[in-house]
Each structure stands twice: as structure tokens, then as C-alpha cells.
Design brief:
By secondary structure, the chain is of the alpha/beta class. The protein is 51% helix and 11% strand. It binds guanosine-5'-diphosphate-alpha-D-mannose and manganese (II) ion. Manganese (II) ion binds next to loops.
């Protein structure tokens, strides 16, 4: 039972030392797609000048079949940048991204494509939906992978509904994403796509992540630190917190400076507060919420709203400073700091739900 497929499809395969897999994979993909009546696809292999001669094999195949395209990069290495390069070169409307080592079963390509045609921008081949799974992983590795997905789901807006947001196997409708926006240092390209775009229509279909067919894994940088840095780069709440921390320094620094030169604690406090509101606003606008397109409110309105939304924490800060210095006799800078901590949470909630609200 093979359904006929429309065939507006590119398949992007990054390779590094895959000489024992690539030939079979390319013929399997060709066979599977042709088996579905799909002939006009293209397969783009991005090889980082593998020392094992992967590119020579692909080159030879590409001479016989012009649907197979080879890009060899000599000045760059890295899975994520390779995928980005492949996405850029893809000429079809839908692009499948997959590994070369058969851990991503090529039989799934038609199903990913059909699902996408039902009206999804991204369809993820997922280990963590019903029917999916992994083969031969220790419990520890499975737990670490699932924990990573969960952290990303909690912290990255676009990844929220995606169970396997770290999958390396997915299809994307090319026009639904802005490839230039993808940070090539991004650790997981799917997480990058999900994190840099809002309002993508996403679906997942299950698959079993099998053992590598030949060769060995190149992902040695699979460390917690890389992952956390990447999550930070695409996580609004984490960036917001970092901006907030910088604002605390601005606030307390300016207050301390003014107190030092004999300005009253009230005026020092208020000046520190206003300076930090402005610096936070600029950083949040340019950095934290940078990925949000077509904001509902203009710049000045956002600035005004941000003041309004900060007013709760500003008033909290000022009053806490006054009360703690008057009644507890503590240093005004310490009182101010206590107030900042109290007001912070309220400020985040107001910012993300009002000030930087997007058009629906
Ligand atoms: N061009 C290029 N450059 N390709 C690379 C590079 C590189 O520096 N490093 C790896 N690749 C290719 C490999 O040849 C393979 O086709 C694919 O990228 C995945 O590399 P593996 O080394 O097999 O990675 P993995 O199996 O450990 O990780 C995969 O599974 C993860 C799921 O747990 C990747 O798909 C990850 O993205 C995925 O999250
Ligand atoms: Mn692999």
C-alpha cells in the first residue's frame, strides 16, 4: 500500500566520516521515495571534508543522479552549521533533516512529509511520544536525554509542546522559518528553530532511535554546559533573569554612588530604580524578546508599559527600602536590594504577559 506523494521535498544530510553508511542510505531514500511515486526530490549532503572519503562517494553518486547534491565545507565543522547550510541550499518547499547513520529510519520520510502536508510547519520524528523509543540506551542516558527535553520544554517558549525537542530528525516547511535567524552556534538545530520562531504549527510522529549502523558518533560535545548555554540563548525567562540581574547592579551601583556624594536616600533610591528600569527595558527589547516579531505595541508604548509594569516592583523596592531602613535600621543599599528581590517576580509576570505581548 503505497500512496503517491507530491514531491516538493529536499532531504538534508550532514555527514562526517560516514563512508560505510552514506551510499546505502542514499539508495534507500531514493528507493523509498520512488516507491511512493516521488521522483523530483533532491538530497543534499553537507560533508565537512571527511578524512574517510565520504565526499568522494557522494560525488560519484551525484554524477549519476542529479537529484543528489554535494556540498563540501573545508573551512568549517559542526553539525548545526552544516544543517543550516543545507537548509539554505534546499530548493524545495519542505526539507527533511536527518542523520546519515540509520539511527533515523528513512522509511519514516514519507510519513513526515504526508503529516506536514496536512498543514504543519514542523513535524518532528519523536522518541518520546507513544510508539517511539530508543534502542540500546542505558537508563542513565535515557534519563539525561528526557531531562534535557523537559528543561527545554519548561524554558523555551516554542519547544513547550514538543516532547522530543532535541530530535535531529524532522521536516520543516522552508517558508515558515527564517534561516538567518538560526544561531549557528546553536547546539540542537531543532531547538534553535523552535526557540527562534513563534506560532509554528508543530506535530510529532513516533519512531525508534536505533543503534548506529556503522562508524561511530561524532557528538562528543554533548555536554551539560553546551546544552545549558544553548537553552539560555533561546530561553526568554532565563535571559530576562540575566537582564534583571544586570539591572540590580545598575540600580544599586547608582544608588551607592549618589549616597556616597551625599544625596538623600530617597532620591538615590528613586534614581537607581529609574536608571535600572531604562537599562532593563533596552536590554529586554534588544535581547530577551528579540525573537518576537510584529509586536502589538510600538517602541514608546512598550517603554511606557514597561514603566507601568515595573511600577509594582519599583514601589515595592522603594517602600521596602524606606521601611527596612526606618524600622530595622539596615543600610539603604541593603534595604533596596531586599525590595528588588520582592518586586522581581511580579515584574516578570507583567512583562511577558502584557508589555511584550504579540499580535494574536
Ligand atoms: N557536516 C557535519 N559536520 N556532519 C556532522 C558533524 C560535523 O561536524 N558531526 C556529526 N555530523 C553528522 C554525522 O555524520 C551524522 O550523520 C549526524 O551528523 C549525527 O551525528 P552523530 O555523531 O551520529 O550524532 P549522535 O547520534 O550522537 O546524535 C544524534 O542524535 C541525537 C539524538 O539523541 C544527532 O542527530 C543529534 O542532533 C540528536 O539530538
Ligand atoms: Mn548517530
Amino acid at each position: 500500500m503505497t500512496e503517491k506523494l507530491a514531491c516538493d521535498l529536499s532531504v538534508v544530510i550532514p555527514t562526517y566520516n560516514e563512508k560505510d553508511n552514506i551510499k546505502l542510505l542514499l539508495s534507500r531514500i531514493t528507493e523509498i521515495l520512488e516507491g511512493h511515486g516521488c521522483k523530483g526530490f533532491e538530497i543534499i549532503v553537507i560533508d565537512d571534508n571527511s578524512p574517510d572519503g565520504t565526499s568522494e562517494i557522494v560525488k560519484e553518486l551525484s554524477l549519476k543522479d542529479n537529484r543528489i547534491k554535494l556540498i563540501v565545507r573545508t573551512n568549517e565543522r559542526g553539525l548545526a552549521t552544516a544543517v543550516k547550510e543545507g537548509l539554505k541550499h534546499a530548493t524545495k518547499s519542505y526539507v527533511v533533516v536527518m542523520d546519515a547513520d540509520f539511527q533515523h529510519p528513512p522509511e519514516l520520510i514519507p510519513r513526515l512529509y504526508q503529516k506536514a502536508l496536512e498543514g504543519y510547519d514542523v513535524v518532528v520524528a519523536s522518541r518520546y511520544v507513544l510508539g517511539g523509543g530508543v534502542e540500546g540506551w542505558s537508563n542513565i542516558r535515557l534519563l539525561a536525554s528526557k531531562a534535557g527535553c523537559l528543561i527545554a520544554r519548561m524554558l523555551v517558549r516554542g519547544a513547550r509542546e514538543v516532547r522530543d525537542n532535541m530530535s535531529g530528525y524532522f521536516i520543516v516547511r522552508k517558508s515558515s522559518i527564517d534561516i538567518e535567524r538560526l544561531n549557528p552556534r546553536g547546539y540542537k538545530i531543532l531547538l534553535e528553530i523552535l526557540g527562534r520562531h513563534n506560532n509554528l504549527r508543530i506535530s510529532e510522529i513516533p519512531y525508534i532511535f536505533r543503534n548506529r549502523r556503522a562508524g561511530k558518533s561524532k557528538i562528543s560535545t554533548n555536554t551539560l554546559v553546551d546544552f545549558l548555554i544553548h537553552v539560555f540563548n533561546v530561553s526568554e525567562p532565563l535571559k530576562f533573569a540575566a537582564v534583571g540581574a544586570s539591572g540590580v547592579l545598575v540600580n544599586l551601583g547608582i544608588m551607592w554612588f549618589l549616597l556616597y556624594y551625599g544625596v538623600s536616600k530617597e532620591l538615590s533610591s528613586l534614581t537607581g530604580i529609574e536608571a535600572s528600569i531604562i537599562s532593563n527595558f533596552i536590554l529586554n527589547d534588544k535581547f530577551t524578546f528579540q525573537a518576537r516579531e510584529e509586536k502589538k505595541y510600538g517602541f514608546l508604548a512598550r517603554l511606557m508599559f514597561y514603566h507601568l509594569s515595573s511600577s509594582v516592583s519599583a514601589i515595592t523596592t522603594f517602600l521596602t527600602m524606606l521601611l527596612t531602613t526606618e524600622y530595622l535600621g539596615i543600610h539603604p543599599v541593603l534595604g533596596q536590594f531586599t525590595g528588588i528581590l520582592l518586586g522581581f517576580t511580579a515584574n516578570y509576570l507583567l512583562s511577558s504577559r502584557v508589555v511584550w505581548l504579540e499580535k494574536p
